[in-house]
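To close the chapter, one final illustration. This time we ask the reader to focus less on the individual chains and more on the assembly as a whole: which components sit near each other, and how the overall shape emerges from the parts.
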Amino acid sequence: MAEIINVNRISKNYERKIALSSLSFTVEKGELVALIGPSGAGKTTLLNMLGAIFPPDQGEIVISGKQIAEMTDQKKRAKKIGMIRQQFDLVGELPVIHNVLAGRLSDWGVMKSLVSLLIPQDKDYATAALDRVGLKDKLYERTSKLSGGEQQRVALARLLVQSPEIVLADEPVASLDPARAEDVLELLVNIASEEKQTLIASLHSVEYARKYFDRLIALKNGELFFDLPSSSVSDDHIKRLYSLKEHS
Amino acid sequence: MKKRKLNFVTASVYALILLAAGSWLSIFTVENANLSTLFSQSNLMYASKFFNGLFGIGEENPAFFNAESWGNAWALTMETLVMSIMATGFATICALLTVVPAARNVADGSLTLVKKWHGRISFGFIRGGYIFSRAVPELVWAMIIIFIFKPGILPGAIALALHNFGILGKLCAEVIEDLDSRPIRNLASSGAGRVQILLYGVLPAALPRFLTYILYRWEVIMRTTIVVGFVGAGGLGQQFKLSMSFFHYTDITLLLFFYLILVFAADFISEKARYFIK
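The assembled structure is written out below.
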């Protein structure tokens, strides 16, 4: 398998607080990686830098052999990297179909985007994606009327339409109850493996991380705590990762 | 130590109480004011004369029993309605055309993740325009514009629109500043350009709130038409002023009646429409 993400000694500080210090790892194409660690360990910061929301203070991130700092074209970057967060990603006032078709905006010009708000364009993409996430009947429903789990499925449908090579998920199921959380997570992982996408997801739940992901990267206080295949992560590892006493 | 220190809020409450007591004291002792002078015999006579006039007592042909006056008042009411709608329309169009660069989070690029060199300049320019246009009261705008054009409802509508353009622009820009930035940034990360973000992220969230402000301003404009009418902007206000000058008191009753209906109708419509939007 080919290397798709190379993170080389990146650091990030907020004011005086160190968010990440000298972090390095590589991810192969098609890998399913879970980021775990206590709150404030730097998981969200790492994902935001991988998604080019802001650059690292030091170090470099290379995606498919290209420096992320040089990928300035938003439209091309969207084909490479897609993001999903907690359920506040969607425009609540719009019907579901437009939120899903927003994944096509990187391919559309301004005129087509405008027309699409009146007469939905490329509708097949949207229906296929919504069918895949099990919300085929909600095509024209107002997005804010959907439940949290359904909204997260709509966000997944948008990602399907966008179809990036790398999916970054920042606490994708944090605001859902356990049953729906597992449901959405399973869908996310299944879609990623079927579409041959590389998935990096930060998670609160170690249980889900071990169950659904191949590889676990644990962060603590901005540093790499361990980076292991999920089968070789022991309970002792987890206990030490989340223990409060080792905080300096 | 810390407990005894007088903080700013407590100090200003004490100052407020002291100031209120002092003001009333000075009114009665220094100014020597007396409420009973308002209710003098002569004032009572003027008041009774005016109200008798309004109800048409002792009048041979009161306007509210005259079909022609009714028709006339109805035409003026329609004129006023047209003026208020025109004013709201002009103000809305101009505000919508300028509102996007006037939002602080668009100007500094934090909403759309795109920063343009002219962001700050156009922000300052448009916001300055808003302040100027709403700092001048409707009445002053109307006097200036009627000085230039001939009297009528179009200059009246322009005057009202000029003042409300500044108000609507500021309110709508603040709506954009208060938008939840998460869905919008997410659109940016899924590859949407500046205009696409506007179409898919900003407008759907902001338009319903714009509409509530527009309807509310329409209500206010409807009430203000009578003020600009006084300086010759047409409609019920102008006729009100004329009837007052000619001592046609029963005309005033009729005009007030139509005016009240108009204001109630505007209140009712905008309230229902706002309810419908939510």
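Residues 63-277 of chain B form a domain with the MetI-like fold fold (CATH 1.10.3720.10). Chain B has eleven helices and no strands. With these observations in hand, you are ready for the problems at the end of the chapter.
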